[in-house]
Amino acid sequence: MSGKRIYIAYTGGTIGMREGPQGFAPAAGFFEAQMRQMPELLAPQMPAFDVVEYSPLLDSADMSPDDWLRIARDVQAHYDDYDGFVVVHGTDTMAYTASALSFMLEGLAKPVVLTGSQIPLCETRNDARNNLITALEVAANHAVPEVTLCFGDALMRGCRARKVDASGLAAFASPNFPPLGHIGSRIEIDQSRVRRPESGATLRVQAIGGPHVGALRLFPGLRASVLENMLSAPLEGLVLEAFGVGNGPKHDQQFLDVLRAGCERGIVVVVVTQCLRGRVDLSGYATGEALASAGVVSGVDMTPEAALAKLHYLLNRGLELDEVRRLIGVDLRGELSAG
């Protein structure tokens, strides 16, 4: 063993499921029992580890901001006793949790690696084994002191990752920022891309989940009444997934009036692109200028998941609304590209 100790928070997901009469489902104690049967985990480079199983085990579709907070506080409670952390999680909302933890864990100086699988660990042919082994190796043996997502052949910054394949084994990508590491015959980390921790910082957890934050994807024919309902109280922040580089309907005056009224009431509306890659430029087209004139702010090249998490984070800090709007466009955790 490597001499390192890793804390594994097992929250649920496909990786630890077993087959039953109604199909695959989580089973208490089953994931750790499967792990303990893996001879690879006894190799010299592998760390010692403790598995803490959450109760109830959650399908990631059931994850909420309260669960993000539970994970963050779990890391904080065991921070001084372990060299790194692995969060085992279902894939459907893993990118949301990775983004949220990136903001919540202030002053982080140890690896926190999220992973999971598309096929359960108990299956003969699965992706769970390699994902789990790699996540443990990264957490124990590589200097990556930030929240990351380890899946397939890539180690990605948590607040840059997106799920891009519903069932394929290369399920996640980092469209607007290169992976921090490539997983092949070796684990190769590009240290020039890894964020360095604050000097002398201690870990703090910023709670999120109090303010009401939502997301809405534009589509042709979206009625102003739908937007109006979305922007009604108690909403405080909205991620608006716009067309292309941040475009919306400039000829629908009722839509723009509703959007402007929401912004004037203090709702922070962050525009991100619906496209997998690229960034928002609200000055590029008249249709983007129309949204900008209504009071929205650019999410630059943030993923929708990161923008949602960042809105939660900033609105929970008790900042003035102008400061929240300003900080949306400031790189805090590597979630967006400057310039």
UniProtKB/TrEMBL annotation:
UniProt-listed SMART domains: Asparaginase (SM00870)
Record-annotated Asparaginase/glutaminase C-terminal domain positions: 212-327
Database matches in InterPro entries: AsnA_fam, Asp/glu_Ase-like_sf, Asparaginase/glutaminase-like, Asparaginase/glutaminase_AS1, Asparaginase/glutaminase_AS2, Asparaginase_C, L-asparaginase_C, L-asparaginase_I
Annotated L-asparaginase N-terminal domain residues: 5-193
Active site residues per record: T14, T91
GO cellular component, one term: cytosol
GO MF annotation list: asparaginase activity
Binding annotation for substrate: S60, T91, D92
Annotated signal sequence range: none
Superkingdom assignment: Bacteria
Keywords: Hydrolase
GO biological process: aspartate family amino acid metabolic process
EC number of this enzyme: 3.5.1.1
Family per record: Belongs to the asparaginase 1 family.
Annotated protein name in UniProt: asparaginase
Gene behind the chain: ansA
